[in-house]
TrEMBL record:
Described function: Catalyzes the rate-limiting step of the oxidative pentose-phosphate pathway, which represents a route for the dissimilation of carbohydrates besides glycolysis. The main function of this enzyme is to provide reducing power (NADPH) and pentose phosphates for fatty acid and nucleic acid synthesis which are involved in membrane synthesis and cell division.
Lineage: Eukaryota, Viridiplantae, Streptophyta, Embryophyta, Tracheophyta
Species, as recorded: Camelina sativa (False flax)
Catalytic reactions on record: D-glucose 6-phosphate + NADP(+) = 6-phospho-D-glucono-1,5-lactone + NADPH + H(+)
Protein name from the UniProt record: Glucose-6-phosphate 1-dehydrogenase
InterPro entries xref list: G6P_DH, G6P_DH_AS, G6P_DH_C, G6P_DH_NAD-bd, NAD(P)-bd_dom_sf
Length: 484
């Protein structure tokens, strides 16, 4: 398949939040770095609002100017905006999608598609309820028609359903229209630098190979915290809750990379095969290994019912029943309106047997991978306190990215993932069977929560969440360490 010729990127839901905050800024950054050539690329926005090309460009400009791209030169911005065209229409209208197809075809002709292929990337920045009609319309009216090769791909965002049944239904509806290699299910955590580093870290370092198992690791924590609440997204959030919003997807994907076996190669299918095996080895979650919380003031949002039990915080322990991990708790924790904004992976090692220094109460070895902010990896070690006395102290071997890689800018997750969709690399996207296995883990618990059988405990905004969560960690064998 030739990879030259025209490339059309079609953002459906072009005036929505996701498009403005993530999709267009990522496209702009790719353009700015030379990954999207104006000789090949055209970007189309499609949405219901009846606005002009210029109005859409103005909206996008507003976002690009005041976000982190403030320093961007305005001529790059105007060149980028010139690539954008807008087509308005409903999400289930033949007529609208025919017009969209016509606009794309005109662009392809202008880019001399006859010399190459036609590549069409449809980015569904839309609520999942419209995925089925939109996919149908794309399939019927807008797929690539070039005889010279090329492709049609669609990119979808979570939430992919609300539980196993609805997710499978959605997968079947889309699967009836497009082949799996055409479907890119984004989980943006897979685009984060230190998440992408995980396999290199594990399989390119001899140091970790013999240690990465139940003989040496006491517990693993994967933690997400945000220091703000649901802020205007209460309506969406109340229907989903923190498990569906963060844990079932982002944290579970990270867990897969921490826990999976070495793939036979770096081919996307080999990597995803191993991730699926991890998910399939997780045993059912027990209610006593779950603590749910809801921050005080969450129900003040007018779109949230005042008897809502939806968790804005959860700690759940997952147990992987295989040779490598039996007995090791994987603690997944996520919360909104907490004391800080942070995401990290903490791998805590077991105590040293026969501890002649009697220093275990100072803390165990812990390997921390900080995903954000300030990407870093550090290893907590016990060392001799410098000086005349023989005293031990806990210290860190610290690889902080800002200091180590000065001047290197770390790409946004969406930039990297969109580039992968254009290049046809599905490694960092969720495969259908992976999604199914992820829902299988959480669906029974989610149904119990939805029925009110597991209750959310109130916690103060700006706190660590309910105290019961810390008690659960302790019970699971997590030992609080010193330092950071
Ligand atoms: C999204 C969730 O998927 O991830 C949001 O829907 C959350 O609730 C966001 O705020 C967090 O992403 P990041 O990249 O800021 O950690």
């Amino acid at each position: 398949v030739s990879e030259t010729g025209s490339l059309s990127i079609i953002v459906l839901g072009a005036s929505g939040d996701l498009a403005k905050k993530k999709t267009f800024p990522a496209l702009f950054n790719l353009f700015h770095q030379g990954f999207l050539s104006p000789d090949e690329v055209h970007i189309f926005g499609y949405a219901r609002s009846k606005i002009t090309d210029e109005e859409l460009r103005d909206k996008i400009r507003g976002y690009l100017v005041d976000e982190k791209n403030a320093s961007v030169k305005s001529d790059a911005l105007s060149k980028f905006l010139k690539l954008i065209k807008y087509v308005s229409g409903p999400y289930d209208s033949e007529e609208g999608f025919k017009r969209l197809d016509k606009a794309i075809s005109e662009h392809e002709i202008s880019k001399k598609t006859s010399e190459g292929s036609s590549r069409r990337l449809f980015y569904l920045a839309l609520p999942p309820s419209v995925y089925p009609p939109v996919s149908k319309m794309i399939k019927a009216w807008c797929t690539n028609k070039s005889d010279l090769g090329g492709w049609t791909r669609i990119v979808v965002e979570k939430p992919f359903g609300k539980d196993l049944e609805s997710a499978e239904q959605l997968s079947s509806q889309i699967g009836a229209l497009f082949e799996e290699p055409q479907i890119y299910r984004i989980d943006h955590y897979l685009g984060k630098e230190l998440v992408q580093n995980m396999l290199v870290l594990r399989f390119a370092n001899r140091l970790f190979l013999p240690l990465w198992n139940r003989d040496n690791i006491a517990n693993v924590q994967i933690v997400f915290r945000e220091d703000f609440g649901t802020e205007g997204r209460g309506g969406y959030f109340d229907e989903y809750g923190i498990i569906r919003d963060i844990i079932q997807n982002h944290l579970l994907q990270v867990l897969c990379l921490v826990a999976m076996e070495k793939p036979i190669s770096l081919k996307p299918e080999h990597i995803r095969d191993e991730k699926v095996k991890v998910l399939q080895s997780v045993i059912p979650i027990k209610d006593e290994e779950v603590v749910l919380g809801q921050y005080e003031g969450y129900r003040d949002d007018p779109t949230v019912p005042n008897d809502s039990n939806t968790p804005t915080f959860a700690t759940t322990i997952l147990r992987i029943d295989n040779e490598r991990w039996e007995g090791v708790p994987f603690i997944l924790k996520a919360g909104k309106a907490m004391s800080s904004k942070k995401a990290d992976i903490r791998i805590q090692f077991k105590d040293v047997p026969g501890d002649i220094f009697k220093c275990q109460n100072q803390g165990r070895n812990e390997f921390v991978i900080r995903l954000q902010p300030s990407e870093a990896m550090y290893m907590k070690l016990t060392v001799k306190q410098p000086g005349l006395e023989m005293q031990t102290v806990q210290s860190e071997l610290d690889l902080s990215y800002k200091q180590r890689y000065q001047g290197v800018s770390i790409p946004e997750a969406y930039e990297r993932l969109i580039l992968d969709t254009i290049r046809g690399d599905q490694q960092h996207f969720v495969r259908r069977d992976e999604l199914k296995a992820a829902w299988e883990i959480f669906t029974p618990l989610l149904h119990r929560i939805d029925k009110g059988e597991v209750k959310s405990i109130p916690y103060k905004q700006g706190s660590r969440g309910p105290a019961e969560a810390d008690q659960l960690l302790k019970k699971a064998g997590y030992m609080q360490t010193h330092g950071y």
